[in-house]
């Protein structure tokens, strides 16, 4: 007798759990791009074969945003959400859907949403379910800048930043030589958080640099042209050259040419020409 009673009790519990209302949102998390018109799905199954009345509510966090009444179709909407949210409800027998629709989502819509279904005489079981909405924002076009002076032997930083993006974008720098051929970074170069640090730069550092800002929505880029300037001539030495005699001038100019300082060579050539003309006149 006791065994029969126990078996009956278990069967009653199983039957009650199976027969009670069950509300379900298929996923725990939903991600959409900013500006999308979205749907958060919600389904339910009642223990009643054909409920005459159902009250469906959706909340965002602790705030109730919309209530839908079946079968009248009447709704109550929070004033802040008016015109942007609606419930797409369809009840067929004891089951149905109660989807939440939101238009033009923004980052302000990031929240945990709850679908709650209340049917008179069917209050047991799982009457609500939740899901998290994350609104993704593509990176804005990054801004590229050079920090420091691009001259021989200096250290400079190339910076890259997008003012918006959710999730936060990652950054990557690529380098190309003056002939637009891709090249690897110098071993001393660091690329972290959108900052490319270049150390002890030389003319080989000159070229094109492209920064790519990327998250799961899309990627955008900006670019910089780096032209490394040769070391400036000392003004005092230049004045001395112009005003006085240039010892071993031919050998000195050959050395300058080997260094690739064409501008200096042209200047010295002009000076020598003037001095030779002056000597001829004397």
Which descriptors would you attach to this protein?
single chain; alpha+beta; Immunoglobulin-like; six-stranded mixed β-sheet; 4 helices; rod-shaped; disordered C terminus
Describe the structure.
By secondary structure, this protein is α+β, with helices and mostly antiparallel strands. The protein folds into three domains: 120 residues, Immunoglobulin-like; 84 residues, Immunoglobulins (Immunoglobulin-like, Sandwich), CATH 2.60.40; 45 residues. The chain is built from four helices and 19 strands. A six-stranded mixed beta sheet has the order 2-11-10-5-6-7, with no helix packed on it. It is rod-shaped and about 90 Å long. The N terminus and C terminus are likely disordered. It holds the Pfam family Ig_3.
Task: Map the helices and strands.
Layout: H1 2-19, E1 22-24, E2 29-33, E3 38-40, E4 43-45, E5 54-60, E6 63-70, E7 75-77, E8 85-92, E9 95-102, E10 111-118, E11 128-136, E12 143-147, E13 156-161, E14 170-176, E15 182-183, E16 190-192, E17 195-198, E18 207-214, E19 219-226, H2 235-243, H3 249-258, H4 262-281
Parallel strand pairs: 2-11
Antiparallel strand pairs: 1-4, 3-9, 4-9, 5-6, 5-10, 6-7, 8-9, 10-11, 12-13, 13-17, 14-15, 14-18, 16-17, 18-19
Oligomer: single chain
Q: Indicate the mean pLDDT.
A: 81
- The end-to-end distance, rounded to whole angstroms, is 141 Å
Say which CATH homologous superfamily of the largest domain is assigned.
Immunoglobulins
| Number of strand elements | 19
Strand portion: 35-45%
Main sheet overview:
6 strands, mixed
Overall outline: rod-shaped
Number of domains: 3
Indicate the CATH class of the largest domain: Mainly Beta
Q: Count helical runs.
A: 4
The CATH topology name of the largest domain reads Immunoglobulin-like
Low-confidence stretches: 1-18, 233-282
**Helicity, as a percent range:** 10-25%
SSE pattern, N- to C-terminal: HEEEEEEEEEEEEEEEEEEEHHH
CATH architectural label of the largest domain = Sandwich
Strand order of the biggest β-sheet: 2-11-10-5-6-7
Radius of gyration: 37 Å
SS-based class: alpha+beta
């Amino acid at each position: 007798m006791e065994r029969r009673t126990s078996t009956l009790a278990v069967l009653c519990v199983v039957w009650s759990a199976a027969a009670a209302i069950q509300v379900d949102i298929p996923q725990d998390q939903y991600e959409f791009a900013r500006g999308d018109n979205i749907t958060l799905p919600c389904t339910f199954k009642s223990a009643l074969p054909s409920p005459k009345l159902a009250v469906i509510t959706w909340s965002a966090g602790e705030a109730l945003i919309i209530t839908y009444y079946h079968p009248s179709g009447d709704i109550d909407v929070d004033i802040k959400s008016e015109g942007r949210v609606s419930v797409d409800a369809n009840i067929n027998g004891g089951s149905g859907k109660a989807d939440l629709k939101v238009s033009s989502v923004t980052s302000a819509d990031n929240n945990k949403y709850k679908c709650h279904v209340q049917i008179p005489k069917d209050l047991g079981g799982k009457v609500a379910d939740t899901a998290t909405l994350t609104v993704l924002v593509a990176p804005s076009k990054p801004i590229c800048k050079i920090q420091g002076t691009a001259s021989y032997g200096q250290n400079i930083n190339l910076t890259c930043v997008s003012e918006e993006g959710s999730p936060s974008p990652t950054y990557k720098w690529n380098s190309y030589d003056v002939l637009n051929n891709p090249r690897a970074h110098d071993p001393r170069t660091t690329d972290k958080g959108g900052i490319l640090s270049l150390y002890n730069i030389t003319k080989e550092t000159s070229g094109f640099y492209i920064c790519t800002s990327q998250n799961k929505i899309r990627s955008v880029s900006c670019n910089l042209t780096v032209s490394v300037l040769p070391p400036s001539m000392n003004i005092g030495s230049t004045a001395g050259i112009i005003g006085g005699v240039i010892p071993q001038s031919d050998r000195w100019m050959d050395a300058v040419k080997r260094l690739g300082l064409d501008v200096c060579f042209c200047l010295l050539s002009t000076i020598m020409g003037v001095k030779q003309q002056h000597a001829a006149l004397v």
